[in-house]
Amino acid sequence: MKSCSDIIVIGGGIIGLSIATELAHVGMTVTLIEKGVFGGEASVAAAGMLAPLKEFTKPGPLLDMGVRSLQLYKNWVLELKEATGIDCQLSTAGILTVAMTDMEEKWLQERYQWQKSEGYDIRLLSGKEVQKQEPHLSKMVRQAIYSPHEADINNRLLLEALVIQAKNRNVRLFQNTAVIRLKHAGRKMTGVVTDKGELEANHVIVAAGAWTADILRQVGVDVPVYPVRGQIAAVDSNHLPLSHVVFGKNGYLVPKQDRRIIVGATEDLAGFDRSSTVYGVSNVLTGAMSIVPAISEAPFLQAWAGLRPATADEHPILGPVPNWSGLTLACGHYRNGILLAPITAKLIAEYVSSDETEHMNPFLPNRFSLVSYEEK
Ligand SMILES: Cc1cc2nc3c(=O)[nH]c(=O)nc-3n(C[C@H](O)[C@H](O)[C@H](O)COP(=O)(O)OP(=O)(O)OC[C@H]3O[C@@H](n4cnc5c(N)ncnc54)[C@H](O)[C@@H]3O)c2cc1C
After folding, report:
1. Which domain CATH number covers 299?
2. C-beta of 318 in contact with ligand 1 (< 6 A)
3. Interface predicted TM-score (ipTM) of this complex, two decimals
4. Is 332 in the pocket of ligand 1 (CB under 6 A)?
5. CA 102 / ligand 1 centre spacing (Å)
6. Whole-angstrom distance, CA of residue 307 vs CA of residue 227
7. 105 and 143 fall within a common domain
8. CA 207 – ligand 1 centroid, Å
9. What CATH number did the domain enclosing 203 receive?
10. In the chain, what percentage of residues exceed pLDDT 90?
């Protein structure tokens, strides 16, 4: 197995795949190593919403990054379709964020005010107006923000397309291969040791989602990334036309072009356990029924769970590990890794090819103290 490339990327989720394909595109030789199957963890579990305005609760660098990433999506999926033949089903019908109680109405109006004052194209709809757009919504819905430019995608198809794109661009792909440890000479990276053998590279990018901390801990670097389980389900939309993503305080519904409606999601701390529990799934379904009561008659299809890579400040961690040469992090995308994948790939490729970190300043690892307890 011993062989050499410019870059090794650890982790074949949406973040690792996007980075690997982008680096190959700018002329690097890249090896991507995944311990399971490509995309098989958080990335396949996601609902596929591309919704920075729904997700981020205040103006700032994370919202700016989300908006920029959303803008990249249209061309990204077009390029992927041309290169792979896969249509990732980007839907641009927009997102409705609904309020059903006094408190939610207050929260919605505050959100509307700051987003409007930042210049975003959003509309505040009355209960009647929103019922016109989505007749199956609960009569309890009093108001909604309609955000016409937010979107959703079929993340399963996106992952398939990225794997093909990576192959087209000659990325060396290893599935079912776990990185056991990082290889280094002093504080300079030299490669990785996997359960199938060793690979050499002077630059290693760790994009291992919720598992990133385990990999870095072995070299005395303590990355504040931890798993937050999301339980989620799918129902058949056959009898229930729903044309927008609907998001409320009790959950969300994401209609897909393949006739599924994805309903989600819990946020629970269960370590690395990604079972679906009776409590979790029933909460998700109850939440969805409170927003769209007719969903109670929809055939149930499936429930599953994934581990979101959360960070201490809920911002991703992107860029070089301080005091190390050739060791870069791209992790901690928490609830928004699908949304943030294209911009993450661009920023990391920019850094790797030019050493430039200016555009990812707010997300650099050096905002945390990364020295592990063993080393202190
Ligand atoms: C229920 C749910 C709903 C979500 N909905 C959305 C949404 O609507 N929109 C959105 O933008 N985001 C959403 N997210 C968040 C999104 O899924 C994540 O932010 C994103 O998938 C993180 O991608 P990743 O590549 O960093 O992690 P992962 O997809 O977890 O990939 C990391 C990979 O690293 C591999 N790995 C770990 N250790 C090793 C090792 N030692 N050697 C080799 N490989 C290793 C793992 O096997 C894994 O495949 C959701 C998440 C969940 C759970």
Report:
1. 3.30.9.10
2. no
3. 0.99
4. no
5. 35
6. 5
7. yes
8. 9
9. 3.50.50.60
10. 95
